[in-house]
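task queued by scheduler; priority normal; single chain, no ligands, no partner chains; default sampling; output format set to C-alpha cells
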Amino acid sequence: MTRKIFIYAFLTGGLVLILCGSLFFGLQYKQTLDENYEALKREADFAAAGLMTGGTDYLKSLRNNGNITWIAADGSVIYDSRQASDNNNQREYKEVRDAFEKGEGQGIRDSIDDNNTMYYACLCDDGTVLRLSRPVSVVKYAFSSVSPVLWVFVLVSIISGVVAFRVAKLVLRPINDLNLDNPDTSDIYSELEPLVNRLQEQKATINEQMDELKHRQREFAALTNSMEEGFLLIDKEGFILSANTAAIRLTNGCEIGDVLKFSDEDINKELQKALDGAHSEALMAHDGRSYRVIVNPVLVHKRVSGVVLLMLDVTEKEQRERLRQEFSANVSHELKTPLTSISGFAELIHEGLCTEEKMREFSGDIYRESQRLITLVDDIIKLSRLDEEGVIQEFEEVDLYRVAEDVMDSLKSAAEKRSITFELTGTHAYINGVWQTVHEMIYNLCDNAIKYNREGGSVRIAVEENTDVVKIFVEDTGIGIPYSEQERIFERFYRVDKSHSKRIGGTGLGLSIVKHGAQLHNARTEVESVPGKGTRVTLLFPKSSEGLL
C-alpha cells in the first residue's frame, strides 16, 4: 500500500508539474511569437514609409535577419533582398493575399531553403506589398532562456518523490501501528473509525462463533471418545481428520494427520471402494474380538470429499449367533437320539417281531427315553424363560436354607440309590429373588453332585451370610472337572465326559440354567474343582437390589 500511495502521490505531483510547465511554455511560446510579429510589423511599417520616399535603394540599405520582398499588385516580385529564385505568384501565399485584401498578413511556413520562417506583409500606399521574414530559429533562441526552468522541474520532481515517500509513510504509520486486537480510535484518522468499529464488531462475532465451535468440538470429542465403537473421518487423500480413542486403538495407534492403513487388506479394499463413492461393510478381527467396519463416502456436490468409518464391536453378537447355531444343532441331536430309539422299539412291537418278555423290556426302554425327552424339553423351556428378558419375573424374599432343605428332600431317593449322604450347614439367609428359579439352580447343582459323585460319596451344602453377600455352595466328593474344561462347563449341552453323561442321562443344560439364573439375580458363580477329588460350586447373591456384579 505504501508503494501505491507513493506512486499516486508522485504521479499526481509530476502531472501537475507537466501541466504547469506545458501551460508556461505554451504561453511563453505564444508571447515570443507575438513579440516577433510585432517587431516585424514595426520594421515593415518603417520600411514601407522609407520605400515610398527612397525606393529600392532604401530597401537595399536595410539590415534584417531575414528577407525583404517587395511585391507588385499582380503578385510578381519587384525586389528581394536575398535574390531568391521563387517564380511562384506571391499572391498564392496567405500572408501576401491577406495583405492585399486586409492590409496586413502573417504566417509561418517552410521557405525555399527548407527552413521554417515567419512572415509579415503590409500594404503600401501605392498598392504594392512589402513582406519581411525572420527565421523561426530566432523564436527558438528566445526559448533558450527557459532552460533553468527545466532544471527546476527536475529538482522539483526529485523533491516531490521524496515528499511523496515520506507522506506515504506518515499516512500509513497509524494504520500499520493499529492494534487490531484492541484498537484505539483516538489515535487513528476519523475517516477510519467506521472501519475500525466494523472490525471490532466482526472480531466479536468471530470470537463468539469460535467459542461456539470449540464448545461443539469439545462436546463431539467427549461424545465420540466415550463411545466403545471406533469413529474415523478421513479426507479423499486418506489422511485422518478426526478419530476417537477406540478408533486409535483399533487402528494400532494411527493419529490425526496420518494416512489410514489397516493391516487387513480386505478392509483397505473396502476403504478404497468408499473413496470411489460406494458404501461398503466388512468384518475385522482385532485382539480376539470381531468388529463390523461400516464405510460410507461423504459427498459434496456429488463428489467424494472424504469417508466416515464406524467400527462396531459385534463379538457378542457373533458369539450369540454361534451359540444359537450350536444350540439348534445340539437340540436336534439330543431330540433325535431318544426319538430314534422310541421309533425303533415301537416299530418292532408294531410288527410283532418281539416276544412278550422282550416287549416288556422295550416298553421300559421307551419309558426311559420318553422321560429323557420330557426332561430335555423341560430344561429347554426353563432356559427359554430365563432368556426372555421381557418376561416379568416376580421377585420375593427367598430363604436359601429352606430352598436347600426342599432340594435335599426332592433328591433324597436318588442319593440313597448311590449311597450318597447329604449334609446341610449354615443359617437361614434371605435374598430378593425368584423362588422357582433359585430352586432350579440349587437343584441342578445338587443333582450334578449326585450324578458325578462316586458310590458312597457325600454332598455338602452350606449357606453363609456376610456383610454384602449371601453365599451358598454345593460340594461333592466326585470325579472332579479337568482344569482345561472348567471355563466351558456352563455352556449349553457341554459335557466333560460324554460317555458318562449319556450313561447317567444328563441333558447338558443344568449348569446353563444355573448360569442364566445367576444373571437374573445379578449373582456370581465360582467353581473350584480338583480332578478325582471333587467339585465345589458357589453362588454369591447380592444383598442390595443393585446387584453384586
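post-processing summary
- The chain has a mean pLDDT of 77.
- The chain has four domains: 2-146, 227-313, 318-383, 394-542.
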